Queue: 3 jobs
Job 1
Amino acid sequence: MLIVFEGVDGCGKSTQYARYKSELTRRGTEYLPLSFPRYEEKSSALIKMYLGGELGGSPDAVNAFAASSFYAVDRYASFVSGWSEDYNAGRLIVTDRYTTSNAIHQGAKLAAEERADYFRWLKDYEFRKIGLPEPDLTLYFRISAELSAERISARGQKKDIHERDINYLKRCVQSADAAADYFGWRIIDASNTEEKVFQEVICKCPI
């Protein structure tokens, strides 16, 4: 089974992912944890160039289809060289981000009326043509763009080209909402306290 934790930047997804893993371990449930992009691997080279602004100073400098390929290649390399056997053996796999991130961040570059066509293309491209497995369950941690920007600023870290563009963050939320509806993601209200969010995670993703 493949479970994906997904959401816009600053939604608290990674915190909930860490808590969920700890709960799996506490209960003695065997699983394989994954996280994307894999910045420490060679396959992420184009992603780092893109996010660092080397291919243009704004997210829109690289079109949705080209940027989607950067991330898809990293996931493909991970799958064929790392976890394909685990997946084919039926092992539980839990991942922080996945192909779902393309739906959010690259779909944000398109007009609202173009997103459904992009989602269809993305599903065919990553799951059919490339051969990555489809998620069995995706948890979408939903927050507003304003709260996203607030939480990102609170980190005090250097921002990438996605994180420093509030208009882009707004479009990401819109694209994520559309993707959640299109792909059937389970929506988590990530504006609540960490504990309330985690209880909702356990409710919507039973261990």
Job 2
Amino acid sequence: MNDQEFRIKRKFIIKLGKALHKFGTPAYRLEAHLMKVSRCLGLEGNFVIFPTSMTFVLHHDAEQEYNHLARVKPGELDLGALARTDELVDELISGQRNLNEALERIDEIADKPNPYGSLLTFFAFGLSAGAFAMLMDTSWNDVIWSGLLGFIVYGLVHVAERSSKMAEMLEPLAAIMCAFLSCFIATYDPSINIPVVILSGIIVFVPGLALTIGLAELASRDLISGTARIMDAVMLLFKLYFGAFLGLALGHALFGVVPVTEPTLLPNGAVWAAVPLLSIALAIMFKTRVKDAPWGILAGIIAFSFAMLGGYFIGDSIGIFFGALAVGMYSNLFARWMKAPASIALLQGIVILVPGSKTYIGLNALISGETMLNQVEIGSQIFLIFMSLVAGLIFANVAVPPRRNL
């Protein structure tokens, strides 16, 4: 291998690593994938991946070593781009593309616009908020108002994509607006459960998935990345809670505290309609490819069904283990059948199970002493759910070993 060939190979590996990081790949998966790609290209590589930095060490021979350190921003999930990048690597290794073509293709993937467009994404935000309210088993009033707040939140997200200043304050501002508007809505519809409507409106920001990925990184002994991801998620949770608390204070000061009236509850079984609706919204928000979307939606249904089945016999918190086990095995089988990253199915299934909402509710109970819903021992529930999730994923990888790193 001459110096020119070494330069283009290392350039591809570095660009590949940055792209996969941008698309939300967990550190332990990304490091393993980059090592595999390096070996396929005839290089020895060592990689250290953090949420905000990346270190590449590539060896050409005993005397030639290349080090590259990059400062990056935490990635956001883009499952469509992740799948296309994985396909690109397969094409390169199989000889269907050369390195120059692969470099150009990575840039094309990174610059590809949202395949669903602004309108569908707008509806997905409203649908996710309304479907989550259905999962909380409240009332039709809460579902409708939560969906409306979800539309408003997307408006803020749309502005933040074009304004760096807006992006810095997006999450607390969204929480402030949802809380303030909920107080305003209560003056016309006193039957709404204000805390639940607020939580449903901002559920897209609640970092349950980030906490789960952080714990999975810790379980794989990726200690620094896992700790950093968890602390980032905790700070985001604090920002959301402070925004909601401030919005409630402003709303109560301006509109007063409205006595709550008895709402009309959702019919039994409505929660089963919420799961596919939420999965559809997540497929759009995660920018999943159209051909992969049905598999992701099915993953959400499988995760929820097995969690409910396990909860019926053992208990809700431990039942999550069976949901994580089922969706973990399903995602590894999906990766084998479709020759695509397991993350496409796994993340869309796991997000149905993650206790992000319970973490927010537990924080509310800890600070204010009030419970948003009739749930006891919320702290122990959160701990058991997180541990059940991580254990389920570990056991799933033993039962059906993954054939792909992503």
Job 3
Amino acid sequence: MRHGRGNEQGISPPIIGLLGAFIAVVAVLYFAVPAALLRWDLDRLVFSAQSQRRTHEGKRFDVAVSPDATVVVRRYGDAGRACAFFFPGQHGGIGSYERTLFPLIREAGADVYAISYPGQDGAKGHAHVDRLFGQVALAVSRVSRAARCGMRRSVFVGRSLGATVALAEAVKFRPRGVLVDGLGADLASVVRAWMGRHPLSTGWRLLPVRALLGRRDYPAASLLQQMPSVPVSIFQGTADTVTRYALARSAVQGRPNVTFETVDGGTHHDSYLLAGSAYVRSLRSLLDEETLRSR
């Protein structure tokens, strides 16, 4: 009787080698692509899907911040009592805030000066993280002079990315106060939270995100440390999956000039709406009655 080797044969060593090489290349690309974006193309991640909804401002200031970019500042109200400079998140969306947030600010007694970064809501150009803070500072400086919005009668209001921008600009300008919601403890934690929300990108959390960002991490604790005399009010939702509640609270603990307001069940998108009257009271407190009466 002949003993055959059968029809099944093992996978040949060359094929195993090719398969291993393919898996290795996929693994390298899986981590190399996001690492490259964080290090050299962060703007593509931070500024995407900009809103172009129609706006209904009373006055518009277009401030040229470079040969190919502008920062747009829209004014809502003309009472001349106090000024609230508003810094939006990565998507802009001033047209939506006209209906939701700006009425709360107006109720507190301030005219709104809403800022749109380059590329947002009709502003010319494209935003770049490395240039943004200087460009916004130029716009705030010019508009505050033109509109007679001295810093003694101005507050800075920010949401999400705009919360970090508001704090960074407050370090330079020292306004009467700062009110923010959806504050990220730093950019690295926001990036890691985004990675964790998407199954295919969960593994990216193994990357050294903070090291890849370098000086572009903008930790809230460091910004607050640089302006100990400016009152800051923070509203943070417990259900915020973008800027985590626990991380934000930990970053601001021990700051005597900071009031941290918990919004139970608040998400990254609705905490300021759920806060409602508390948001208005906080803004009024930052402005105080003397500011509201003065011109």
